[in-house]
Amino acid sequence: MAGTDTAVGADAIRAGGGVESSAPNEVRALSALAFDELRRFPGAIRDMHLGIADRAFRGVGPAGRPVQLIHDALSRRAYGTIGASASALGKATDVAVDRIGVGEKVSLSTTQRGSFGLAVLNGLIGDQLERERSALHQPTSVRVQGERIGLDRSSLRDAFPVATPRIVVFIHGLTGDEFCWSWGAEDPYGSRLVSNLGCTAVYLRYNSGVHISENGRSVAGLLEELVGAWPVEVQEIALVGHSMGGLVARSAAHQASKRDQEWVKRVRHLISLGTPHLGAPLEQGAHRAAARAG
Length: 294
Prior knowledge:
single chain; six-stranded mixed beta sheet; 12% strand; Rossmann fold; 2 domains; alpha/beta
């Protein structure tokens, strides 16, 4: 993401121009999620333990029923104590994090490593994070060097001071983020678009853990706002999607066309990189197996 436009835009970002505020406290939210999962874990083990024990006691017969009642009661109490301890530790940690204010000093989503961790988390349980309105949820947004950019004309002008009429929109895949387009690259392809083709690279981030159609709808809405507020009149748009990103791009274009949105009328290219348009191999195999079984 080190293009001419984004390099200049970084100065505006450091000055505070064009940047939307990040999630309130991502570190605190991540801590809460970890301890919440830790609290639930003993319950899952308890249920498995009691299920196995029940089969054993059924083999003994009615004579073992009194012992089973005592066993089950003690087991539930033991696992409940472990879960309560995890919950108490989580609350204490939350208070400590809040008191220290570490979450106000560190924003995970704006750093390359932190963003990668959140991208994986969103890819795995993104629907849960969205449903719970977690600070770890990564909604669809335009990003420049990790920072979320507002979609008003002033913010876009600050973030893209040399914006051109030709836009190339990069859409990452499952458990990815906008940083994936430049991992390990000294001269990322997007950074050469301005000098070689007169294009401006725009990188999106979205929650890859929710349904493709939902992401398509949110991307379509974002691009409609982006084009309407772009510093110069947009003449041409190219969509570049990696893996799931190609499906999201196709869904966005389809939904925008049905809604007669303006941005899709300017799309000239849709490029897919490793996108399973016919379904992933595992999905295809499952479908064929189901067809044979039927």
